[in-house]
Amino acid sequence: MTVGRKVFVFNDISRIDSISKQTREVIISIYYPSEAFGNRPTYTTLFEPCIPLAADMLCSMGVNKEHINNLNTGIYNNASINTTVRNCPIIFIAPAFGVVRDMYSFCVEHLVRCGFVVITVGATHESIFSIFPEGRFIQQSKEISDIDDLDINLWKQLLKLRFEDLKYVLNNVEEALSSVKDLMAIVDVDEMGIIGHSLGGAAAYDILKSERKVKAGVLLDPSFHLITENKDETAPVSLLVVRQEKCSIEELKNEISQELLLMLLNGYNALYNSSYTNSSYIKLHGAHHMTFSDVPIHYKEDGIKLKHSIVNDYISAFFEEYLMNKEYRFNELMKNKLRDGIDEIDSNGQVI
Q: What range does the record give for the signal peptide (predicted)?
């Protein structure tokens, strides 16, 4: 099975973008099971129709030009639907701060081949770049690129914008799905899950608290310092939290400021202690914050293929159990967690 991709742009006329001063545009990529489509395309086709601009920007950030231009992908733009597939749950992905929505291909390809339709939701003006179908190339705004880690008010503004974008996409998802011929015939709009990474993880959790149509969530090293919890505002869904290797106070004390560390640990502890019964908190040996994206692939990081494979196995098993009713799929996988370099962790990030 191959993976097709269609870009779709929402125009939310109810909101004015604070940067563009125009109505808020939310750009998404829809990934779906597709028919066989010839030779594997290059990774940079994900940046059509602005491939040179995107490649140059990545190279300015230290990515090797020859490497990025020679990477392949199993994703085919505008490919035909594989209509033999049926009842595909929908998984939304909310990226990390600055990370382009299509830079989760390692996970997207795997999920689609496991029978899911995936929608990645971009963050215009916050992502390092946003590419629109007609050729607009919008870079990250300077105000956002200069944000300080402890400028919590601005971070909360970005979080609110992410939440509103995700909510709009959720509430109008059938409009986007209908833009791909025959796609509505293979999806199950009653089964939805969400993945969020970093800032996207905090936004995904806010969605899980407010949108009951989303039935399961995976948070990849989320921004815990932006997560607030109280007994009247919890997410009554199955939750999988996957963290980088360094996640306890001892492991992080020399990595980030004391003030930020305390906020992060308080947020994590509150989330852990308010979680639904069928929730799991794990960490992956050797993982860092960007392990949960394509970024390490861009920089040819040693061992990333294996780490991505492990992350994929746990994410897909989790959603198969809680969205596809494949009983014990995730729980069976957890029996072999030590073999995979996975540890369960407690409310303080310590190995159980």
A: none
